Amino acid sequence: MTTTRDRGRRVSMGDVARHAGVSAQTVSRVANGTGTVIASTRDRVIRSMNALGYRPNSAARALKLGSFRTIGVLTHTLSTLGDVRTIEAIALSAAEEGYATTLIPVHATSLADVDRLFSRLQELAVDALIINLEAPSLAHATEMLPPGVPVVYMDPDAPAGHVVVDTDQAGGARQATQHLLDLGHDTVWHIAGPDDSRPSDRRIDGWRATLREAGRPIPELLRGDWSVESGYEAGRRIAGRDDVTAVFCSNDQMALGLYRALGEAGRRAPRDVSVIGFDDTADARGYAPPLTSVHQDFADVGRRCVAAALDLVRGDTPPRLSIVGTELVERESTARAPRR
User: Fold this and answer.
1) pLDDT tens, position by position, 75-107
2) Total Cβ atoms within 10 A of residue 43
3) pLDDT of amino acid 332
């Protein structure tokens, strides 16, 4: 049978309706996911769509329905586990709501780059934006966001009035630090993330505040870049010191690097040094010893971001600030402080 596709003409909704023996309105309901169509009829329409090679005109549908059924996600990087897992959760949550996700990686090295990016956003066909960027550096460009497009930030330092979803970074650091103090350690050292990371800054704040409130000395801050190698290099500076008995690392990968540095210095966790990570990655339980870590619920962050974005799209009012809690997962890398 020769189809309209074979004749080189775009297959129309009317073509599908004639092929399936239904009305064009029924085809529209199936294509747009609106209205009620009995299962047998829907299956027949879908078979006709496939047979004819019909593809809904998303632009026309968006104009008709006033929706693109798409959420845009702006992110600085996909190099960290936390970002990848959060964006995956956003995509899955959006799909459950019938929305696609458009990922816009931002590799801006200057404010001019950011300005150009946001200018391009004016033409982006999305119903809402979720912004996983460092809000302070973008405050000047807020007015360049597409007009009328709802925005959800993943940074509490977002410009005033915006909806924010974030993880309790400082609270997680407090849990980790307090756990080590409760085990009898005199103080807790910290291998932090890079100095341009707001999550890292908040974890530093929680670590310092806990030590200060307990009246304990605050050791020199060590820095890494989230990688195993950076954790190793930072760990080499302290691995051989007898006064170092507890270390809180700002992510699990740097904790793994610290394990290596300790081993090279003839020490190990938790006999000589208790170690805690952050993120509670799937690999953490496979470390030797299994790593105590602060669990972040990335799936909940993704769900809350999508829920807030869709609330804004529908004209509802989501909470201005939604903080997802953390939980310390105790494994075998922490123990009572060694006797001197």
Assistant:
1) 876 667 778 888 999 999 999 998 999 887 776
2) 13
3) 98
CA distances from 306 to 104, 214, 310 (A): 16, 39, 6
Give how far the C-alpha of residue 259 lies from the chain's centroid of Cα atoms, to the nearest Å.
Answer: 27
SS3 state at 214: coil
Predicted confidence (pLDDT) per residue in 137-172, tens digit: 555 545 556 667 899 998 877 777 889 999 999 999
Element (H, E) at 324: strand 321-324
Helices 81-96 and 298-314, packing angle to 10 deg: 50
Q: State the Cα–Cα distance between residues 259 and 269, nearest whole angstrom.
A: 7
Question: Look-up: residue for tokens 């360049």?
Answer: 144
Measured CA to CA, the distance from residue 103 to residue 74 in angstroms comes to 6
Collect the ranges in the chain with pLDDT lower than 50: 1-7, 141
- Count CB atoms within 10 A of the CB of residue 215: 6
Query: How many of the other CB atoms lie within 10 Å of CB of 175?
Result: 21
| Residues paired with residue 151 on neighbouring β-strands, in sequence order | 129
- The residues that bridge with 327 in the sheet, in sequence order, are 295
Q: What order do you get walking across the sheet with 151-153 strand by strand? A: 100-105, 70-75, 128-132, 151-153, 163-167, 321-324
**Beta carbons of 69 and 63 less than 8 angstroms apart:** no
Phi/psi at 296 (5° precision): -105, 135
Q: Which has the closest alpha carbon to 183: 20, 339, 17, 21?
A: 339
d(C-alpha 51, C-alpha 222), whole Å = 62
DSSP state of 97: T
Q: For residue 105, say if its preceding peptide bond is cis, omega within 30 degrees of 0.
A: no
* CA–CA gap between residue 200 and residue 224 (Å, rounded): 10
Q: For residues 283 and 255, what is the distance between their CA atoms, to the nearest angstrom? A: 12
CB atoms within 10 A of CB 62: 15
3-class DSSP state of 223: strand
Q: 321 pairs with which residues across the strands? A: 164
CA 322 to CA 318: how far, in whole Å?
A: 9
